[in-house]
Amino acid sequence: MSKSSIDKALTPEAFQNLKVKTPPSNTAGFRGLKAATSHAVKYIKPGNILKITQNINQKGGFDCPGCAWPDPDDDRSALGEYCENGLKAMAEEMQKTVIGREFFAENSVDELSEWSDFEIGKSGRLAEPMYLPKGATHYQPISWEGAFAKVGNHLNSLSHPDEAVFYTSGRTTNEAAFLYQLFVREFGTSNLPDCSNMCHEASGSALSETLGIGKGSVTLEDLYKAELVMVIGQNPATNHPRMLSALEKTKKNGGKIVAINPLPEAGLMKFTDPQNPVKMLTGGTKLSDVFVPITINGDVAFFKALLLKLLEREEEKGGVFDKTFIKEYTNGYDDFIADLKTFDFQDCLEVSGVSKEIFEKVFELVFNKKKIIICWAMGLTQHENAVDNIRELVNLLLLKGSIGKEGAGTCPVRGHSNVQGDRTVGIWESAPQAFLDKIEAKYGFKPSTKHGYSVIDAIKAMYEKKAKVFFGLGGNFISAVPDTAYSAQALANCNLTVHVSTKLNRSHLVTGKEALILPCLGRAEKDFQKTGVQTQSVENSMGVVSSTTGVLEPCSDALMSEVAVVCEIANATLKAQSKINWLAYKDDYNLVRDDIAEVVNGFENYNTKLQQPSGFYLPNGARIRKFKTKTGKANFTINKLPNWKLKEAELIMMTIRSHDQFNTTIYGMDDRYRGVFNERRVIFMNREDMKLRSLKEYDVVNLKSEYNGVIREANNFKVVGYDIPKNCCATYFPETNVLVPLDSFAHTAKTPASKSVRVTVEKV
């Protein structure tokens, strides 16, 4: 009997051989160099390793498909502009093993679902289009023409375009993303959910409201010149390791660093640059001046405590707030101060879980510095009050005048390499009317103005059978989304699921009645079209658009670029009634960029600008104190403390990545910087919480979450005692995504609350 889609979506419960060691106090260095090298040698063809390391993130080379951390504008390291996890990403995407019809003939969908995510990902590069017919147990080969026709027939058989969902991963380039949203809008829907819905959507919502742009305001140079950098709710050593080099420059130039996080991540404590022989021999650089072990979701409370103390000093002596900046550039100051005074300092500090001693250290730094940068990631954005978290950070920066000047500002650190660029060029379920008007003026059709499905809306629509076709341009949808069991059933309810991918992942095993896997080129591979090898472009986390050109020969002759796939599907679906010559775009990507230049603000003379070796900066009003908000000024906001209390025996759980992981991609089974090896089914607990529950190291437990009367379960996890605040715990995703309620999400942003899940722990 075939396994259910829910069973296929859940990671196998089998244990490996768990070993726990004392977490290191230093990162990168010799161990990082060794780990990166071993992955490259094991998984990449020997002849490709040198080409990759010489060209990744270099001017004229290709952009790393991992994180979106920016490259230096000026000279770049001759030893390579990459990190340990960047090379792991290349080892994953440029695997020497290639899989096609023989692999799928030998392995059924049910059998593959029994593999771990690590085994699935390392099975090899996809070599040809594959099709899973209704009721079949194995994928089988299909021609590209047959695949395009099948997608077109399914889409055209829908009773309304809104019955289709078009998802986008953050690895998609600007060119592919622009064409994709253009096709979707000409098809007649705005259903364009993307991975930003699950990570930094709350950042975009908060920053747009307060500063007039949903992006950060700083550059890499600003980090070097900051007097104080606050790093909140993020783990740079794993998720964007090259950020540590920038923080090292902050320290070298006299700046201070405060790390605020429930876990004492090693990368924020000390960093040894593996490209600096002197640092390798002398032991590296201490980064954090103060580590703040905040309770999960205690951030608004902690910042309110800081704001109250700053207000007290301002009213005592003056000169604490930048009154000139506040008067000229901000709105809502008086209402904000009046609301702030309704809170009690001691109550806020208690809710934050931070000691008075540590608080005072942070306060003195904030009080004495004028150039402040606040960096954050999903530790702040994946809560029901996530938008409040970011708005409160902005309140602090506005009071200090730390917006729109050198060495100061906002720095949301994006995850996937082009997630910010995708939004910029139109991947948005609620695009501004001005953008839609430009589409209409350029192409002659009227795009839908209806608010499309975000990720959570799309899952509900598929579950309720209101959406019947799912198309994923990259990504591992089922392993990224919350409420795994519900989401798996949602996908199973579809008539057709389609994934454009470089390699196998679990989403290919959780299918609709029919399914297609369409293999595409990797970022490092040459993209041959009629006019020659094509160049594409991406936007990094700080708003710089740069070129990316592959250097390796494609691993299979049957691969297509994402641009070509989109063009062919648009042509097969829209046919003669389309107002656009889709096939012309795939022959020459310069034509795509010419269109982007006409439609998207900031891309004028796109093809010319892209020839600049370091790329070019997009306009950023917050960077120059031109705040394009409804008031025309930067807005103070009023934010509440999170309104929840744990029941007896409950813990608040946050999902996290291991060091051998990027998003849903599992590079290996170790979490070196947390001292965990050979296992992912673990729960990190405060040792006092363990004692209260009569638990000891390595005990096996089952986890349950309850939300609005619905109980969700995840079984077989081993307990690991850790330095995490009381009443808090942490687990890896996607293993515990099944516990994250679909209807628990950030207000106004719908980012899943994966960092604040209430759970109980039951010993097996």
TrEMBL record:
InterPro entries: Asp_de-COase-like_dom_sf, MopB_CT_YdeP, MoPterin_dinucl-bd_dom, Mopterin_OxRdtase, Mopterin_OxRdtse_a_bac, Prok_molybdopt-oxidoreductase, YdeP_MopB
Domain Molybdopterin oxidoreductase: 125-499
Keyword vocabulary terms for this entry: 4Fe-4S, Iron, Iron-sulfur, Metal-binding, Molybdenum, Oxidoreductase
Cofactor(s) essential for the protein: Mo-bis(molybdopterin guanine dinucleotide); [4Fe-4S] cluster
Stretches that traverse the bilayer: none
Residue ranges occupied by any Molybdopterin dinucleotide-binding domain in the UniProt entry: 651-757
Pfam family, one: Molydop_binding
Family (UniProt): Belongs to the prokaryotic molybdopterin-containing oxidoreductase family.
Protein name, per record: FdhF/YdeP family oxidoreductase
